[in-house]
Amino acid sequence: xxxxxxxxxxxxxxxxxxxxxxxxxxxxxxxxxxxxxxxxxxxxxxxxxxxxxxxxxxxxxxxxxxxxxxxxxxxxxxxxxxxxxxxxxxxxxxxxxxxxxxxxxxxxxxxxxxxxxxxxxxxxxxxxxxxxxxxxxxxxxxxxxxxxxxxxxxxxxxxxxxxxxxxxxxxxxxxxxxxxxxxxxxxxxxxxxxxxxxxxxxxxxxxxxxxxxxxxxxxxxxxxxxxxxxxxxxxxxxxxxxxxxxxxxxxxxx
Length: 254
Hints:
By secondary structure, the protein is of the alpha/beta class.
């Protein structure tokens, strides 16, 4: 399975961290987000990478090079940032089978392997890592509606009134059918080619997409405070900066 990473973003909300570098190269606990993504994808069995670049692309290419951990790296260029479906189409010529897709602005400590295993089972056309978030936060994400078997029956991008609090996390597996769906997507109200719209086209064509519920955590690095929260978690601290182990010990002593 090839692994695709979308890393074209500028990261305007992360300023001043992105004033001189692209979002994907912002360091979290001493390591660029993109490097963390590639390490995890390699551990999941990727046999090569395709990285979509855009803002300050040359910095990403210089940082990663033509191979990573002995695996080949190919770059595609998204000249205009017109949505995730638009970005995904830039890799179509470089992917000829099932593949992993990771958004290059997330830090994961979660059961990604369960998603890959589900795809490799041959029983689904795609699989997504999903998580439940507070209802008041669901409108910030791509919201998933599932049936009793945890098959995804609808995806809505940033709905004003969410009908579910189950959201996509930024890690997916797909068959090449997703590319055909991306070609059919029309611009949304905000002028972008939305990945959830392509996913809904897959569902409408009878394709099966499974939701794998997250065991662990992930942090979407959108703001400097998100970076700080991810660093605390990676260091064994909770989101308030309290050592998780210490909390457990204190609780046991009470």
